[in-house]
Design a protein that fits this description.
Layout (H helix, E strand, L loop, with lengths): L1 E4 L2 H4 L4 H13 L3 E4 L16 H17 L4 E4 L2 H16 L1 H11 L8 E4 H16 L3 E2 L2 E4 L22 H8 L3 E2 L18 H17 L4 E4 L2 H9 L1 H8 L7 E3 H8 L17 H4 L2 E2 L1
Parallel strand pairs: 1-2, 1-3, 3-4, 6-7, 6-8, 8-9
Antiparallel strand pairs: 5-10
Length: 287
C-alpha cells in the first residue's frame, strides 16, 4: 500500500527521529509513504497571523501537488503542518472566493477532496488494525500521553472525537503492554512556536506539563508533535530555571514507542538523538 507523505520542515531537521521512526513503523507494517514531490513549507505557526490569503495559498500549493501526483490520502505527521494543510483545505472548500483566489495565485486547480491524515489518524486507520501481528516486545512503563493543542483544535478540522480527553495514543500504549496514566495536562499548550521568541514563557508552560505528568506517576511522555517534543525535551535547562526542579522524565514520539515494541533497533528509531536519555524506556522492554 502506498500513501502520500508530507514530512514538513521539522521532520527533515530538528525532528528527524520522528521521520525515521514513522517511516520504519510504516515499512514494518507493509505501508510505503511516498513523499510529495516539490512540497514546500506550510507556513507553520506564524504565517496566518500576517496574511490570511497567502497563509492559505502556501499549504494549498502542496495540496495541489499531491492531487496532481495522484494521491487521495496524505500523511502529515507534524501537528502544526497538519493544522495548516487541513485548515487551508477547509477554507478553500468553505469559500468559493478564497478557492478562486488561491487557484489564481498557484495557477493550479484544487478539488479539495484529499484526505489529510495526522500521525494519530494514520496510526488509528492503518497501524493499529495490524499492530498485534508485528508487536514482539512489551514496554512495562507508565506513559503520559500528551496531545498538545494543535491535534485537538480547532474543532472544524480536528478528527479527534474527544477533544478534551482524547484516548487514541492511549490505545497504542495498551497495545504495547504499557500503562497510560490519567493526568490533567494532556491537551494543554506547551507554548508551541514561541520557543525562540519567548523562551521563558514556553519554559513555564512546559514545566507545568512535565510536573503534572510526573505527579501522576508517569515514567515517560509520548507525543505526536515536533514542537511539543522540542519544548518538552530540549528546553530542560530553561524549565529548571523557571520551576526550580530538575525533571528527567524522557519524551518520545509515539512512533518510537511503537517501533521499539515491534523490535525495530533503537538507533533506527533515533532514540539516541534526544536531550533527555531514553534509557529507562529501552530497559523496560520485555518479551
Amino acid at each position: 500500500m502506498k500513501l502520500g507523505y508530507y514530512p514538513g520542515c521539522s521532520l527533515e531537521g530538528t525532528s528527524k527521529e520522528y521521520n525515521d521512526s514513522l517511516l520504519a513503523v510504516a515499512e514494518k507494517c507493509g505501508i510505503e509513504l511516498v513523499e510529495i514531490k516539490d512540497w514546500n513549507c506550510c507556513g507553520a505557526s506564524a504565517a496566518h497571523s500576517l496574511n490570511h490569503e497567502l497563509a492559505v495559498a502556501l499549504p494549498a500549493r502542496s495540496l495541489a501537488l499531491a492531487e496532481e501526483q495522484g494521491f487521495t490520502e496524505i500523511v502529515v505527521p507534524c501537528a502544526a503542518c497538519f493544522s495548516r494543510l487541513a485548515m487551508a483545505q477547509f477554507n478553500i472548500n468553505k469559500d468559493d472566493d478564497v478557492k478562486a483566489l488561491v487557484e489564481g495565485y498557484l495557477e493550479k486547480k484544487l478539488s479539495g477532496s484529499l484526505t489529510i491524515l495526522s500521525a494519530i489518524d494514520f496510526l488509528q486507520k492503518y497501524i493499529y488494525p495490524v499492530a498485534n501481528t508485528y508487536i514482539t516486545n512489551k514496554l512495562d512503563q507508565k506513559f503520559a500521553c500528551y496531545y498538545g493543542c494543535l491535534l485537538t483544535r480547532p474543532r472544524e478540522i480536528s478528527t479527534i472525537e474527544r477533544h478534551e480527553d482524547p484516548l487514541i495514543l492511549e490505545e497504542a500504549i495498551v497495545k504495547i503492554g504499557g500503562k497510560p496514566v490519567e493526568w490533567s495536562f494532556k491537551t494543554e499548550c506547551c507554548g508551541a512556536g514561541f520557543s525562540i521568541s519567548k523562551t521563558d514563557f514556553v519554559a513555564k508552560l512546559s514545566g507545568k506539563i512535565l510536573e503534572n505528568a510526573v505527579n501522576h506517576g508517569a515514567e515517560s511522555i509520548v507525543v505526536a508533535c515536533p514542537m511539543c517534543h522540542s519544548n518538552l525535551d530540549m528546553r530542560r535547562p530553561d524549565i529548571k530555571k523557571q520551576i526550580n526542579k530538575d525533571i528527567q522524565i524522557p519524551v518520545l514520539f509515539i512512533t518510537q514507542v511503537l517501533g521499539l515494541s515491534m523490535g525495530i533497533p533503537a538507533e533506527k528509531l533515533g532514540l539516541n538523538k534526544h536531550f533527555v536519555s531514553t534509557d529507562n524506556v529501552k530497559k523496560s522492554i520485555s518479551h
